[in-house]
Amino acid sequence: QAKSDGRNTFCFYNSDMSHQARDRLLLEQALREAIASNGLSLNFQPKVQLETGEVFASEVLVRWNHLTQGFISPSVFIPIAERSGLIADLGRWVMEETCRYLAEIKQSGLTILPVAINLSVHELEGSGFAKHLMKYVNDYDLEPSLFEFEVTETGLISREEMVIESLKQLREAGFRVALDDFGTGYSSLSYLRKLPLTTLKIDRAFVSDITDDKVAASIVRTVITLAESLGLEVIAEGVETKEQQSILLKLGCTKAQGYFFYKPLDSLEFRKLINH
Ligand code: C2E
Ligand code: MG
Ligand code: MG
Ligand code: MG
C-alpha cells in the first residue's frame, strides 16, 4: 500500500514537473515572439503629490496580452524573462518604446513629465549599461534627467559590487535611481548608504497596514526620517484609501502612487490626463 502510494506520488510529481517545464517553455517562446513583434505594450501609473493629487511623473509598467491566454501579469513573465535571458531584449524594448512615446509628446508640444522605468538586476550586469541607455536618450533627443530607474532591494544584495558600479554609472550619466519595494528585503543601513540613490519607494505592504497597525506606521515614519537624513526623496506605493492618504501626510510623506489616485493607464489615457 505504502509502496504503491509512493510510486503514484512519484509519477504524478514527475508528470506535473514536465507539464510545468513545458508550459514555461511555451510561455518563453511566446514572450520571445511578443518582444520581437510588438506584442507588448506600456502602461503609465501617475505619481502624485500626496496632498493635492497633482501628477508630477509616472511609472512605466510593461503589459503582455498573450494571443490565447489574454493578459499575463509581469510578476509571472518578468521572472521567466530573467531566467531565460530574454530580460535584456525586453528591457531594451521598454526603454526604446518609452523614449518613442516621450519624443512623440515633445514633438506635439504637449507637457512632458519624468518617467520611472523598472530594471531587473540582471540588466545591470555587464559594463556599459548606462552608455547603452544614453544612446536611446540621445537618439530620441531627450534629457537623462527625465528618467528614473527603479531597482529592487532583493536583487541587489547578491551582486553588490557590480550593481553599485552600474548604479554609479547611471547617476553619472544624469539618470535618477530609486530603490523599489523598500522594506521588504534585507539591506542593512550601511549597505543603503553605499547605494547611489535618489529615491526610496516605501513598499505597499507597509502602506496597507498603516491604518490599524501602529508598528507599520512607525516603520513608515522611520523610513521617512531615514530618507531625509540620507538626502533622498521618498514616495509611498499602493495608496488605496483616503485614510491611508491622511495618515501618510501626518507622517510627513509628500508623494505617492496607488489606486486611490490612479490605476496604471494606457498611453492614450495618460496623455489625456496630462493634457486635458
Ligand atoms: P513594482 O515596480 O513594485 O510596481 C508596482 C505594482 O503594483 C504594479 O504591478 C502596479 O500595477 C501595482 N499597483 C500600483 N498601485 C497599486 C495599488 O494601489 N494597489 C495594488 N494592489 N497594486 C498597485 P504590475 O504592473 O503587475 O507589476 C508588477 C511588478 O513587475 C513591478 O512591481 C515590477 O517589479 C515588475 N515590472 C513591471 N514592468 C516592468 C518592466 O518594464 N521591467 C521590469 N524589469 N520589471 C517590470
Ligand atoms: Mg517599480
Ligand atoms: Mg514597488
Ligand atoms: Mg514590486
TrEMBL record:
Domain of life from the UniProt record: Bacteria
Domain EAL: residue ranges: 24-276
Record-level GO BP terms: regulation of DNA-templated transcription
The protein's name: GGDEF domain-containing protein
UniProt organism field: Nitrincola tibetensis
Residues of the full protein shown: 425 to 700 of 700
